[in-house]
């Protein structure tokens, strides 16, 4: 049984990034900046933004925290994003999801310039990524694929079932799996006979947002389990205790996909810094 240790892999990635950030500083005498935008005071979002700021510090980058009130309008948020697009000090822009309901979130995501969209939320970037062109990728899907590569999990020719079809997780991870030559099924709330669909999978990606949703008897013997879920009580979207006896490898929760998501955000910010600051 292989435990796909996201915490350990995130540390490896961070170590490599520290060296790359140091090289940028040495070459141009400036420190890369990730701008994080938090609208309102959703407690989970506050924690996520803080964690991303801490990760910047660990790899030697600066984070600029922009906190906007909960009644911010779409126009105000667009103005903030445009200012950051034009700020030469800023290499990456992260708009923490979700934003309050009155804001057109996708319009704001799409306003982030492609060269600074280090969280991979712009629809043009999604399109480029889907057809295999260079683009910053949505961080959690990139984390899932990177973890499988790091731990030697073969994707080519495998049946992969992704449960969930959100724009930031289910759909992009399905596109990335397809680019890796897996045979991909995307399941969602209208999928019929979900347990039977999941039972076909050599690789199961759970991105449902429901605690302990995937059951042990849905899992094909020897499957690889990638649990992207993170719910109250520190549990994922799979009932891991029941699923683990059937699988060959799994991501623990916590300590699986979560830490690598932040590491991938850092990695793409460093890539953006290299292309913006060293050109
Ligand atoms: P989301 O936008 O709420 O999407 C959930 C998806 O699950 C939807 O496509 C929905 O189908 C599907 N679904 C809901 N009930 C279902 C059911 N009974 N059967 C089959 N499919 C069902 O959630 P998300 O933003 O993609 O997040 C998913 C999970 O990943 C959450 O646990 C979240 O906390 C976690 N997450 C983790 C990270 C990280 O850094 N580790 C980052 C982002 C999200 P419909 O489209 O038909 O409604």
Structural account:
The protein has helices spanning 6-28, 43-59, 74-85, 105-111, 123-130, 139-150, 170-179, 194-199, 240-243, 257-277, and strands at residues 2-3, 33-39, 62-68, 90-95, 159-163, 183-187, 203-206, 223-227, 247-250. It is globular. The strands form 2 sheets. Strands 1-9-8-7-5-6 form a 6-stranded parallel β-sheet. Strands 3-2-4 form a 3-stranded parallel β-sheet, sandwiched between helices. Helix 2 packs across helix 10, helix 6 (139-150) packs parallel to helix 7 and helix 6 packs across helix 10 (257-277). It folds into 2 domains: 28-113, Leucine Dehydrogenase, chain A, domain 1 (Rossmann fold); 139-257, 3-Layer(aba) Sandwich (Rossmann fold), CATH 3.40.50.720. Helices cover 43% and strands 16% of the residues. Bound molecules: NADP nicotinamide-adenine-dinucleotide phosphate (NAP). Residues 140, 163-166, 168-170, 187-191, 194, 207-210, 228-231, 237, 257-258, 261 line the site of NADP nicotinamide-adenine-dinucleotide phosphate. NADP nicotinamide-adenine-dinucleotide phosphate (NAP) binds at residues 140, 163-166, 168-170, 187-191, 194, 207-210, 228-231, 237, 257-258, 261.
């Amino acid at each position: 049984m292989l435990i796909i240790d996201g915490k350990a892999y995130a540390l490896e990635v961070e170590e490599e990034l520290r060296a790359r950030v140091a090289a940028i500083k040495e070459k141009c005498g400036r420190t890369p900046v990730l701008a994080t935008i938090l609208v309102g005071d959703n407690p989970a979002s506050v924690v996520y933004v803080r964690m991303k700021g801490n990760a910047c510090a660990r790899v030697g980058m600066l984070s600029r925290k922009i906190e906007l009130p909960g009644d911010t309008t779409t126009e105000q948020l667009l103005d903030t994003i445009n200012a950051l697009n034009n700020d030469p000090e800023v290499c990456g822009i992260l708009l923490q999801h979700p934003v309050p309901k009155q804001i057109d979130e996708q319009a704001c995501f799409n306003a982030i310039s492609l060269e600074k969209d280090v969280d991979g939320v712009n629809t043009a970037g999604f399109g480029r990524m889907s057809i295999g062109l260079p683009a910053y990728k949505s961080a959690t899907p990139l984390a899932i694929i990177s973890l499988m590569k790091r731990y030697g999990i073969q994707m080519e020719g495998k049946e992969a079932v992704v449960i969930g079809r959100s724009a930031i997780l289910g759909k992009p991870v399905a596109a990335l799996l397809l680019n890796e030559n897996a045979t991909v099924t995307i399941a969602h709330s209208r999928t019929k006979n979900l347990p039977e669909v999941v039972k076909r999978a050599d690789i199961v990606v759970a991105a449902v947002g429901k605690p302990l949703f995937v059951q042990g008897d849905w899992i094909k013997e020897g499957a690889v389990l990638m649990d992207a879920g993170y719910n109250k009580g520190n549990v994922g979207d799979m009932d891991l205790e029941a699923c683990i006896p059937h699988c060959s490898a799994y991501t623990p929760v916590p300590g699986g996909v979560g830490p690598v998501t932040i590491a991938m955000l850092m990695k793409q910010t460093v890539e953006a810094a290299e292309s913006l600051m060293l050109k």
